[in-house]
Amino acid sequence: MMHLLQEQIQRAFEGARLRLQELLKVDLRPGAIALTSPVGLLLRAVARSAKAGDWDSAIRALLRAIGLIHELEVLEAQAPALLRDFRRRLRRGSEDEYHGTRCEIATAAALIARQGAFKRGAKGEPDFVITQPVGVAIECTSAHLRAPSDRPLTYKLTAAIRAKAQKPYHSAATVLFLDYTNVLFHSVDVAAITSDEVLTEVRATLEQTHFGALVLLCYLLDETSMDYVRVYRRIDRQQSTAAVRAFLDLCYPDIGGIVTRWAVPGVG
User: Fold this and answer.
1) How far apart, in whole angstroms, are the C-alpha atoms of residue 74 and residue 70?
2) Residues 227 and 117 in one domain
3) CB atoms within 10 A of CB 110
4) Do both 140 and 243 map to the same domain?
5) Do 30 and 162 lie in a common domain?
6) Residue 103 sits in the same domain as residue 229
7) Which residues of 60-69 are buried (b: 16+ CB within 10 A; e: fewer)?
8) Is 89 within the bounds of a domain?
């Protein structure tokens, strides 16, 4: 039985490697220089865990790769110009840059899946401009750590909000999408980082800005369905615009996914 599982993982890994090569137009064969990129490191994590016989970790890393593939395929079919931009950034970007790029890829794919009408923001604009309803934009960011911490990690979320509040396009028409997957992964107390107390502090920080709303996003590995899912928590600012609320009600209603048995990946 275990031998059969190993063969299935190896076949799935090879299929994922080949598909990522096609989507990113880069050599991801063993020894290729692109394996030092964040996507390459993800593939190496699958191979390393499999070689060590750590099949749970291999499966989790593989699901991350498959999740990325699925979102890139949405862009390939519906927004090829966006795929070209993200392809360049994934091939050349650093590990720190990957966090932000990954959030943008997921947001673009989710907007397409939710039938949201949008375009890429021009220079000096937020990442995405919603075209229906008009008067709404999305700026993506992420919060991440380099190592586990027993320190309360709310500051990472509030610092990310404050940093984006310094941008010239910071306004009531802009919704801030904040991916905190990595912070959750490194949090010693997962329950604490998702507690009402933390959300109250995050909400208070949001109210000190001019953003229309905040969408907190996190990737989870659903251990029941063995799917890679993205869940969210929406926080509207009291002064958000009618257009912002209409867009969020359509594409990001209050309930952002329920997963009962889950694991947190290190990064999307």
Assistant:
1) 6
2) yes
3) 18
4) yes
5) no
6) yes
7) bbbbbbbbbb
8) no
Q: Which residue, among 90, 123, 91, 117, has the nearest Cα to 104 in the 3D structure?
A: 90
The answer to whether residues 214 and 235 touch, using CB atoms and an 8 Å cutoff, is yes
The structure tokens listed for 99 are 């966090």
Written as six digits, the tokens of 233 are 């928590």
**Domain range for 200:** 94-268
CA distance 89 to 217: 21
> Residue 125, SS3?
coil
C-alpha separations of 134 from 66, 170, 238 in Å: 34, 16, 20
Does residue 170 sit in the same domain as residue 260? yes
Q: How many domains in the chain?
A: 2
Evaluate whether residue 88 is within a structural domain. no
264 & 176 share domain: yes
110 shares its domain with 223: yes
Please give the chain's pLDDT, 268 residues, in tens.
Answer: 456 668 888 999 999 999 999 999 999 998 888 888 999 999 999 999 999 999 888 998 999 999 999 999 999 999 999 999 999 999 887 888 888 899 999 999 999 999 889 999 998 999 999 998 899 999 999 998 777 766 667 889 999 999 999 999 899 999 999 998 888 877 755 555 566 777 889 999 999 999 999 999 988 887 777 788 888 889 999 889 999 999 999 999 876 555 556 666 766 6
